[in-house]
Amino acid sequence: MARGGSTAAPPAFPLPLLLLLSNAFFACCCLAAPPGALVTNVPGFAGSKLPSKHYAGYVTVDEAHGRRLFYYLVESERDPAKDPVVLWLNGGPGCSSFDGFVYEHGPFNFEAGGSAGSLPKLHLNPYSWSKVSSVIYLDSPAGVGLSYSKNVSDYETGDLKTAADSHTFLLKWFQLYPEFLTNPFYIAGESYAGVYVPTLSHEVVKGIQKGDKPIINFKGYMVGNGVCDTVFDGNALVPFAHGMALISESIYKEANTACQENYWNASSATCDEALSKVDAVLGGLNIYDILEPCYHGTNTKEVIPQNNKLPPSFKDLGVTSKPLPVRTRMHGRAWPLRAPVRDGRVPSWQELAASVPHGVPCMSDEVATAWLNNDNVRSAIHAEPVSSIGPWELCTNKLDFNHDAGSMIIYHKNLTSQGYRAFIYSGDHDMCVPHTGTEAWTASLGYGIIDSWRQWTVNDQVAGYTQGYENGLTFATIKGAGHTVPEYKPQESLAFYSRWLNGTKL
């Protein structure tokens, strides 16, 4: 008995122990992965056995509307019982996360079939992120990829509704897969997922604090070439182009003087005129990777005679380390130059294609389209058939999407100040979301530097540069990479991904 005759308070359990006990109880009361979700056959893959288990299917996030989100889970090839679980989101808004699955870090490399529209051939990807983690590829929001709603009003959506639905998805998904409740959980994505990731992370943290069940063992998030803030992103391109020697010193000085470093929102005719010179000089470049043509494969080097006197580095431009040709379009926000995401309605890809003089550059996704619109593939991965929900498109025009979450800086500040780890990375040759803006807003959070700017290496070669801040924030660039880093730097992307997840230095 305590002094005064009152009963002593029960002992307080530390939060990690409470999480472990709660999730252990929850797991005992629930079944493991739903057997109907197991993918037993992957059309196009001729191998005798997959290196890990795959699951796919739908989670209904709104019963009344019939709003269903599609996911594809690739279990870790290493130790799925202990390895991190990572949710992957592609951007757009309106683009399918099968972009990441097919073209970036999924379990397969896709080889085009013998004729247009025929079933592609699948080969194991030696640099799949499933080598070190279980990855959930989620099509979000409804209307994107293989996700859909029976109520078309759901296709009028935005950042906040998308984050709320994705959080509902996660809570229901972990009910279906309770065996992963104690695994470290991360959220990752690229491009417009620079909005999806922090807003969803915010919802997850709010849910943990409210006591939503099951309790998600959320540890942090990562964003690649992600949009963040109108001003920082909008003012990034001109300094990037100057630093990359794409515009001359005189053009840069003229723009700088006329616009007073406010490039995204020109306030005078003089500024507009100066920026039109910038746009004219940059026209024709691949906005997603200034070093690359729109299409290249393993035989591109043959275009240059071997006895040519060009340095080896120039002969290698356009050559990928992947064993198969890379697609003819790089993923990303195909905005016109200097057009950052602003508050309000976000135009679709199709609208952008109509507004840009030469259309959205490098658009072609034959392999993914042929695979995901094949009836046998749809059946094998438990997706609704084309006859029911329509064809798969990389980026849809179904949505009426609003950017209603504002700047992401306050989200990043809030999450990192609570101790959640954040990894922000950029391909250093991406002109769609230039690293100059990303590095600037990362520094603007005001955290002290604990790991000064330095090289990081893969196989004794410099792979990029990194800087570490307080509160678990890391910024990194990947040398020679564009907007979709894993597509063109698969070995390097697996290296930084694995090291960061494991908490080791790049």
UniProtKB/TrEMBL annotation:
EC code(s) of this entry: 3.4.16.-
Q: Which InterPro entries match?
A: AB_hydrolase_fold, Peptidase_S10, Ser_caboxypep_his_AS, Ser_caboxypep_ser_AS
Enzyme class, one word? hydrolase
- Tell me the keywords, alphabetical order: Carboxypeptidase, Disulfide bond, Glycoprotein, Hydrolase, Protease, Signal
Q: Name one GO biological process term.
A: proteolysis
What is a single molecular function from GO for this protein?
A: acyltransferase activity, transferring groups other than amino-acyl groups
- Signal peptide coordinates: 1-32
Similarity remark: Belongs to the peptidase S10 family.
Q: What is this protein called?
A: Carboxypeptidase
Q: Which organism is it from?
A: Miscanthus lutarioriparius
